Amino acid sequence: MYLQTDMQTMDDLRLFSKADTQGIYDIYNHSFTRGGQTIMEAMFRKPLNNREAILKRINTITAFVNRKASFPFDGAMLDQVEKYISFDDNPDGGTKVSLSEKEVQHGVMAIINLFHTLRQYLASAEMGTVKELEEERLAAIGILNAPAFIPVFNAQPNASISFAAVTAFDVLIRSKEKQQVLQLLHFIYHIDVYISVAQVTLKHNMIFPVVHPKGTSILKVDGVYHPLLKNAVANSLHMTPARNLIFLTGANMAGKSTFLRSFSTAVYIAHMGFPVAAAAMEFSVMDGVYTTINLPDNLGIGASHFYAEVLRVKKIGQELSEGKSLFVLFDELFRGTNVKDALEGTLAVCNAFTNRKDSKFIISSHIIEAADELRKKESAAFYFLPTVMKGTVPAYTYTLEEGVTNDKHGMIIINNEGILDILKQGNKGGKRLNKQL
Q1: DSSP structure string for 89-147
Q2: Domain 210-406, what fold?
Q3: Under a CB-based contact definition with an 8 Å cutoff, are residues 372 and 396 in contact?
Q4: What is the dihedral of CA 272, 383, 237, 263, to 10 degrees?
Q5: Alpha-helical regions (H) of 46-100
């Protein structure tokens, strides 16, 4: 049911914010409720690997996009309901929060208002035409029409309620029928998520991908860009069963990591059934998505960066050996070892990957010598991000091109910054360097 992935991939793609860095989640999350935010986070942590489930979510959100829907419930009212029902604190139905008489009264009135609003919404043309949620809509109507809730609808929204009535409603809502109320809230939270994503779709002109059955091994993305970058350069990349490994080269600062994040993020988000930052996309459902962009040393087991890379490759190999279809990305594979070992390791791993037609692999590398050997594999394709020299100053197009490049301009940048001249001047130069840094 769920796509296999891990924290390394989530961190690589920067799905969630850290410190002052915005995450992909923040783009999509404009939920009005805490419950909606919790559900959306769960969707980010557990993408889908079932075509029918992905299509249902796509079609549901699309229905709200087409209606340019807005959230029909008052956020402040739902905050009162959430506090009153203690949903976030103890979702199994118990009550951990002690409420004052005034808080109970406000909570009961909020529930009454919510029930009336929900009944009207469920009967609206907007909800009646979202066929993907018809089962959930009818279930919610069934709860509202239960005899136990007749007193709720006999009470008028925002009307004064006697102390005795408040006490009776409190017993009904927080004891006898609490699970039914929680089920209604769960439905509302999902509506919150769908409408939030629908509004983001319209605001950012995102598109929904075409979803192919598992095993068809299609992955085509046109005009993909990183949704967190302003004026991002879009790129296109097509992969098929006969073209399942991409070998990517390019100098530092040419945009490799940004492209890899953009493309991988689209693959990940597509498996959530959410719209992606691209002009068009088609993909076959996969069993798992694993990326390796910022792999840290595993100090807990005394592992160097290279050994951490080896363990990562081993993990991927074990998943592949079980017959799973995976999207796999390694940014600068085996960067943690010497050039000779990196070349031999890169060739061995890439050659093994090319034999797995049901999976997709992107390997970026500075070891361009590996390309000569990999050209013998028909399923390998080669792309690079170019550097354009303007005199002694490198410039970047950030536009993917076919082929292999040996662009290297590290020393040019060092010379342009005058670092060697500064260091040659001894202590005086060192002070100047510190000041610049």
Answers
A1: T-TTS-------HHHHHHHHHHHHHHHHHHHHHHTSHHHHT-GGGHHHHHHHHHHHTSG
A2: Rossmann fold (3.40.50)
A3: no
A4: 20
A5: 51-66, 75-85
Instruction: Indicate the CATH number for domain 31-204.
Output: 1.10.1420
Q: Would you say the pTM of this structure is higher than 0.85?
A: yes
CA-wise closest residue to 28 among 189, 170, 227: 227
- Residue 290's φ and ψ, nearest 5 degrees, are -135, 125
Strand stretches in 19-63, DSSP E? none
The full set of domain ranges for the chain reads 31-204, 210-406
pLDDT tens digit at each of 437 positions of the chain: 899 999 999 999 999 998 888 999 999 999 999 999 999 999 999 999 999 999 999 999 999 999 999 999 998 899 889 889 874 455 555 545 578 889 899 999 999 999 999 999 999 988 988 999 999 999 999 999 999 999 999 999 988 889 999 999 999 999 999 999 999 999 999 999 999 999 999 999 999 999 999 999 999 999 999 999 999 999 999 999 899 999 999 888 888 999 999 999 999 999 999 999 999 999 999 999 999 998 875 555 545 788 888 999 999 999 999 999 999 999 989 888 888 998 999 999 999 999 999 999 999 998 999 999 999 999 999 999 998 888 777 888 999 999 998 766 555 566 666 766 777 776 555 555 566 65
Q: Two tokens at 61?
A: 């959100």
How many residues are recorded in the chain? Answer: 437
Q: Which two tokens stand for residue 29?
A: 């999350």
Phi and psi based region of residue 19 (left: phi greater than 0; alpha: psi -120 to 50; beta: remaining): left
